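Why should sequence recovery work at all? Because a backbone constrains its sequence more than one might expect. Tight turns favour small or flexible residues, buried strands favour hydrophobic ones, and helices have their own preferences. The token representation captures these environments compactly. In the example below, the structure is given first.
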């Protein structure tokens, strides 16, 4: 081989080596950009064990499964979340601590179930919310400073979690009773189930309140341990068996007129996820939130009719006198809690400021559906 040929081969070898190194660098950069390092691929999918705070048959547990499926699908199976029902690992009210400690990798529930750790958390679900609905509550949470205030509460509690507020709920019924509730005094001496600030609200109306998780309410009503109870919506209430123990359903209330769900991750487990996987979760939360609303409209409206036609439940609108009494009692509770808890006072003030303009905007711009409904369906019997 001549020196010229040897030099040519050396140059070609150098070019090939540089191409190989450049290709390897691009592949490494690409994997880092995607957020799914090859080592994770080699080790298989990341698996997480979750628990909801809901019985298997409740539509709320279905919402938890819906979210998990979205994440599992959107990550192409690289993250696999398994969701167990309430009580599978810990009692429903112990979910927050279990996720913080790493006993569970994550969970699905509601903020008011942590009410006992800091009563400010009840402002994310068991108050009149100053006239806001749950969509407005979530708007305040994301854009009005609520998320930052919420983190201050969890920092004060000392839990290590990644928390998402999502899934706006519709106004919850006053509840299930042995006979129609016609005035505020009907609550005096009544053994009643509720949660959050609603405990103080119904105590203020004279009820003896017992905070029970969803799966325990109907058995307590059946055994006479409760005279009345509220849970959430037509579908959940029907699936949990309320019409088997009561035929009186009082609709509309301010005790939980703006509530949302919570998605929880153990913070260390979440922080260890690749960046792109975290971004997928961020977007899956909002996708699941929208889908939850659409599913709830379809399912709740069907079960609302089924309760009346198949289960023979009688439905009554809660009298305005009771609704007004709820607001008056909440005013007193707000003053009492604000005096004892600076975070409660700060969050309530933030919500009130946001609600003043948001609710006015809605009242002034959104047409009342009653006229259109009566126009198209009012003559039907």
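From this structural description, the recovered sequence reads:
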């Amino acid at each position: 081989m001549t020196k010229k040929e040897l030099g040519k081969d050396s140059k070609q070898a150098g070019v090939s080596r540089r191409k190989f190194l450049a290709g390897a660098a691009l592949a490494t950069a690409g994997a880092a950009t995607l957020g799914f390092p090859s080592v994770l691929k080699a080790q298989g999918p990341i698996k997480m064990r979750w628990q909801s705070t809901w019985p298997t048959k409740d539509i709320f547990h279905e919402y938890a499964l819906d979210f998990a499926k979205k994440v599992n699908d959107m990550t192409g199976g690289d993250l696999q979340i398994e969701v167990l029902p309430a009580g599978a690992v810990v009692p429903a009210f112990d979910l927050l601590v279990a996720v913080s400690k790493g006993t569970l990798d994550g969970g699905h529930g509601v903020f008011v179930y942590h009410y006992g750790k800091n009563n400010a958390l009840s402002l994310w679900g068991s108050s009149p919310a100053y006239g806001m609905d749950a969509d407005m509550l979530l708007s305040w949470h994301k854009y009005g400073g609520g998320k930052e205030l919420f983190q201050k509460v969890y920092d004060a509690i000392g839990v290590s979690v990644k928390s998402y507020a999502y899934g706006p709920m519709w106004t919850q019924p006053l509840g299930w009773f042995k006979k129609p509730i016609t005035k505020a005094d009907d609550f005096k001496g009544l053994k009643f189930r509720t949660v959050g600030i609603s405990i103080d609200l119904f105590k203020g109306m004279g009820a003896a309140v017992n905070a029970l998780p969803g799966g325990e309410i109907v058995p307590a009503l059946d055994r006479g341990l409760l005279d009345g109870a509220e849970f959430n919506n037509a579908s959940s209430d029907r699936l949990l068996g309320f019409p088997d123990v009561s035929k009186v359903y009082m609709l509309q209330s301010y005790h939980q007129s703006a509530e949302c769900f919570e998605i929880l991750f153990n913070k260390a487990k979440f922080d260890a996820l690749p960046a792109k996987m975290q971004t997928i979760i961020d977007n899956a939360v909002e996708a699941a939130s929208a889908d939850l609303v659409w599913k709830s409209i379809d399912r709740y409206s069907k079960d609302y009719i089924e309760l009346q036609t198949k289960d023979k439940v009688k439905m009554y609108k809660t009298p305005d006198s009771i609704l007004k009494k709820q607001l008056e009692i909440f005013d007193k509770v707000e003053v009492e809690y604000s005096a004892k808890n600076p975070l409660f006072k700060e969050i309530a003030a933030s919500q009130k400021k946001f609600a003043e303009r948001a609710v006015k905007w809605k009242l002034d711009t959104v047409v009342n559906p009653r006229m259109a409904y009566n126009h198209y369906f009012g003559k039907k019997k």
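A few observations help interpret the result. The chain has two domains: 43-171+259-297, 175-256+314-364.
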